[in-house]
Amino acid sequence: MASELEPDRLRPLLRGGFGEPYLYFTEVGSTQDVLREGEHPHGAVALAEHQTDGRGRSGRRWEDEEATNLLFSVLLLPPAGAALPELSLVAGLAVASALEREAMVPALVKWPNDVLVDGGKVAGILLEASGSRVVCGIGINVNQDSGDLPPTPRFPATSLRVAAGHPFDRAPVLVAVLAELEGRYTQWLDGGMAGLADDLERRNALQGRRVLLGDGRSGAADAIAPDGRLTVVLDDGTTTLVGSGEVDLQA
Ligand code: BTN
Questions:
Q1: Which of 43, 78, 144, 156 could form a disulfide with 148 if both were Cys (CB 3.0 to 4.6 A apart)?
Q2: Cβ of 54 below 6 Å from ligand 1
Q3: pLDDT tens across 134-176, in order?
């Protein structure tokens, strides 16, 4: 059966410049590797129905069920000197906003770049940079039933289908995410994080939650700072800004 994501169906739906070119694979090792090298323009997209070597952050694997989710990478070519770590939040915000609008379910950003719906992880983002070339990989759980979600030891997973109670045509979801990513990226290029700050504050899933930092310290997460770092009020009463690494929610 033809997939709704095949180029003939998808290309006419695209709005804006992201998705040109649109490189579609029924199976590939990782869409990240498709864009890592070669002569691709800013906004090029590689998408696969199935990845045999899907990557998550911190060396984890990203498992998928064929033709069920969205697995794609977008090539970003920011200007020299741009604050690349901020792109995590730009992408997280774009995915959360697009999913909320398409699926009509409230979506939050779990700093730095997971997207949560109903407290479960619905999407993950992996940014891989070499020089000023950034490959932004996005995995969105779309149509899995609750019994088919991957076991995730660090955090419960969910899908749009589980959250909304019905399956989705993946094409409009992809189109919405690409359009939103292009819009947020342009906003960030023009005005940095300042233009995204209000929306980020509204979607900050960690605000007020107990968190465990990668170095073993714990505390209460507070706002996302203007430079994109997470403010944490530690248990000893001091405040720290976390710039990178994993932050786990504590029970
Ligand atoms: C994470 O939450 O750990 C990030 C997951 C990123 C998964 C996507 S799927 C498309 C792209 N290709 C990959 O190999 N990984 C990213």
A1: 144
A2: yes
A3: 999 999 999 999 999 877 767 799 999 999 999 999 999 999 9
Beta-carbon-side half-sphere exposure of residue 73 (alpha carbons within 13 Å): 30
| pTM of the full structure | 0.95
CA atoms 102, 108, 114, 118: torsion sign: negative
Q: What is the tens place of the pLDDT at every residue in 52-66?
A: 999 999 899 999 999
Between the CA of residue 61 and those of 106, 139, 152, what are the distances in Å? 27, 12, 11
Sorting pLDDT into bands at 50, 70 and 90, what band is 251?
low
Amino acid at 35: L
Q: How far apart are alpha carbons 166 and 207 in whole angstroms?
A: 30
Instruction: Name the residue at shortest CA distance from atom 3 of ligand 1.
Output: 56
Ligand 1 pocket member 184 (CB < 6 A): no
CB crowding 92-124: b at 16 or more within 10 Å, else e: bbbbbbbbbebbebebbbbbbbbbbbeebbbbb
Which are the contacts of 222, defined by CB distance < 8 A and separation ≥ 6?
207, 208, 230, 231, 232, 233, 239
Distance CA 240, CA 131 (A): 29
C-alpha of residue 162 to centroid of ligand 1, in Å:
20
| Domains of the chain by start residue, with CATH | 7-201 (3.30.930.10), 206-249 (2.30.30.100)
Measuring CA to CA, which residue among 157, 170, 158, 164 is closest to residue 66? 170
